[in-house]
Amino acid sequence: MNIKHHPTDETLLAYASGTLSQAMELVIATHMTLCPQCREKVAEFEACGGAMLNGTDGLAMNVDALDQVMAMIEQEGANENTIPAPLASPRRVAVAPSMRGNAVPSLPTPLASLLPENILSLEDIPWRTLAPGVKHFPLKSVQTKGSVRLLKIAPGISIPDHGHGGHEMTLLLKGSYIDDVGRFCAGDVADLTDDTDHQPIADTAEDCICLIATDAPLKFNGILPKLLQPFIGM
Amino acid sequence: MNGTATSRRAPANPEDARQYADWIVAIAASRDKAAFARLFAHFGPRVKVYMFRFIGTQEMAEELAQETMMQVWRKAHLFDPQKAAASTWIFTIARNLRIDRLRQRKHIEVDDADPTLIVDETPIADEIVSQSEQAVLVQEALVELPQDQRVVVELSFFEDISHSEIAERLNIPLGTVKSRLRLALGKLRTGLEGVS
């Protein structure tokens, strides 16, 4: 996987500090699964969080705080098996070069964990038609003031020119698209805010599948409402 | 508590940082209660201040600080001093507990055992600087930041607000918040790269 477009440092910092919406966290954690470089950056930002924590003066705890916690620990100790056994070393599978095509091999855990259990790959998604050449699958269990969904765009289809009322983040999972910013392939993230205008076009012979999260409250000023409006009268 | 949360006077010390890591390792290895008591004395009040900044009530901040320290005890076997400094690891536990309690959901994270995880094949040069030493360097770099940059970094970590809300709070344009953050993060990162 040859990732060229990454989330901005400010977005990775917000992920590390734990202030992103669940929808944005989902996009970031899925991208990070595919991107060692962003994992490294987030680890550095978490180290900043640790340094900030360590650098505070602190706020005195209750006089009996340690005793209370110790008592709870003693109680747990009485039932030792509540303490988890050390985990076996993580199973790390480097993706063999032959597997590295222009698609995510299977569903990264952060994404899979928020999809219905019967969906094991992008092939299993029960797409719903949104507009000619555009299908979607909303992730309803994710907390956001905006929306989060998988989007499938047929080759040559262009999404109408649009800006972004709020934060919109797109992770490419399969295929590619091209817009004013550049060409986005599997693993790439378009981290767009404010008034970035773009008109993405699926530019290869295969379907383009992406995960799109927005944070804006439903104000119908983003990409999907524009698509939806003429077809379902929203 | 008014003004900034980070103290300029507390000198960061690599010996201390190593000590914290050793205590967590001792808890994992032998359920060392004395080590836990020392770790609690140092980090408990700091986690409480972190929680207080988000919650605003002493009572709940105390409860979540105690619970964070309980998790430090329970999860000590998962701590890897090669991967993170003690302060970093405890920060992530506190952050995740805060999200769990205040937003009633889990912080979405990368699964290290995920078969789709893509690992960097280019071997990283031997880490000359340990995680504990890095933690100290980051802390020093934070203290060195100009006040206007430090404030945006601090608000990013100690308040549950977006960058546009930080802009509103400080009455500066969103672009300025982002450029200050970028400058600050650049300095914090080059500080690390300069030594490794």
TrEMBL record, chain A:
Limits of the ChrR-like cupin domain: 120-214
Matching SUPFAM superfamilies: RmlC-like cupins
Superkingdom of the organism of origin: Bacteria
Extent of the signal sequence: none
UniProt cross-references to NCBIfam families, sorted A to Z: anti_sig_ChrR
The name this protein goes by in its record: Anti-ECF sigma factor
Organism in which the protein naturally occurs: Thalassospira profundimaris
Lineage: Bacteria, Pseudomonadati, Pseudomonadota, Alphaproteobacteria, Rhodospirillales
